[in-house]
Amino acid sequence: MTEVKYWAALSRVPKLGTVRFRKLEAYFGDLKHAWNAGLADLKAAGIEAGTAQEIVAARPRVDPDGELMRLQQAGVRALTWHDSEYPARLKEISDPPPVLYIKGAFQPADQRSLAVVGTRSPTSYGREVAANLTGDLAKNGLTIVSGLARGIDGIAHRAALDNGGRTIAVVANGLDIYYPREHEQLSCQIQEQGAVVSEYPLGVRPDPRGFPRRNRLISGMSLGTLVVEAAEGSGARWTVYHALEQDREVFCVPGSIFSPASRFTNRMIQEGAKLVSSHTDVLEELNLTVVTRQPELPLFQESEDPEEMALLNHLDGEPLHIDDLRRNADLPITSVSTMLTMLELKGMVKQVGCMHYVRIREAAPAYGV
Fold first, then answer.
1. What is the C-alpha to C-alpha distance for residues 298 and 276, in angstroms, rounded to an integer?
2. Which of 128, 174, 252, 298 would be 202's cystine partner, CB 3.0–4.6 Å?
3. What is the mean pLDDT of each run of 10 residues along the chain (369 residues)?
4. What is the tally of helices (H) and strands (E) in the chain?
5. What is the DSSP letter of 17?
C-alpha cells in the first residue's frame, strides 16, 4: 500500500504511459525514488526533458498520501500491473495500463470473459439479439465485459446481471464520475456482481479521445469480442481493431443488408469474423463447454490417471491429429485412442473433426440447471 500511492500520483502526470513507467521502474527500482528524483536522474532514466519537467511540476499539486486518501474515500482501489488481482490477460497486450482503478473485484472466473459491444442506437432486432445472446453466455459462466455506454453496452451488462452472471464495465473517466448519468444505478449494480474499472485517476472527465484507447482494455481482458450491430463509423470498430491486434477472437452477429446499423458487422463477417447465430457458436469457437449439473457427477471431472494427464499435456487449443499425438507421447495408438475416449467423457478434450483433438479450457458452470 505504501508503494501504490506513488503509482497513483505518477498516473496523474500527462503522457506518462506504459513505456515511461517501465523506464522508471527499470532505472529506479521502485517508484518512490522516481517520484522524488531530480531532473537529471529522470533524464538518465530515459524520460524526455518535457515529461521529466512535468513530473517535477506535479509534486506541489499532487500529494501521494492525499491521493491514496481520496481513493479510499471514493471506495476505489488502485492495482498496479504487479498486483495478483490485475487481470493476467490484460498484461499480455502491448500497452497495459500501469495503474488500473477498480470498484468491485475481479475473480478467477473472469478469465472466462467475453467482450460484448455495439451501437449506441440499436434497432429492436439488435436489442433482442444482444439481450438473448448475452443472457445465454452469462448463464454458461462467461463474464461479460463492455463499456457501460448507451445501447448495446448497457443491454449486455443488464442481461448478464439479470441472468446471475458476472460483468465488468470499462470506462473512460475517473471512477468518481458516472457517465452516462442514466447508468449510475447500473454501475452500482455491476460493482456488486463484478467490477467497474478505468485507467484514469479520480476526477478525470470523459473525453471523446479517450474512448478508442479505453476499448483496448475491453478487448484486452477478454477471450474474444462479440459485436451486435455496428455501423461503419461506430466506436465498436476500435474494439474490433484492438482485438485483432491482440490476437483475440472476433465474433459478429449478422444483420439486414439494408440496415446501416449492420454494415460494419456484415463486412467483418465477409473478412473472416465468426458469424454468430447462437451462444453455442461462441462457446465452440473458444473451446468452452457446458457441463450439466448431475447429482452423481462433479461439474468438471479431473483425471486422476497419471498416463491420461501426461497425454493431456501434449494438447492445447490448437487441433492435433491423433497420429501426431501418438508420436509426441510415444505411446501405442490403441492406448492413445482409449485415453482420448476417457478424456472426452470427462470433458477435458474434444474431437474437432477428422481425428483432430483439442484440450478444453476449464468447463464453464451451467447456471440454473
1. 30
2. 174
3. 86 91 94 94 95 94 94 95 94 95 94 96 95 96 96 97 96 95 95 95 91 95 96 92 95 95 95 95 85 36 75 85 87 81 80 77 44
4. 17, 14
5. -
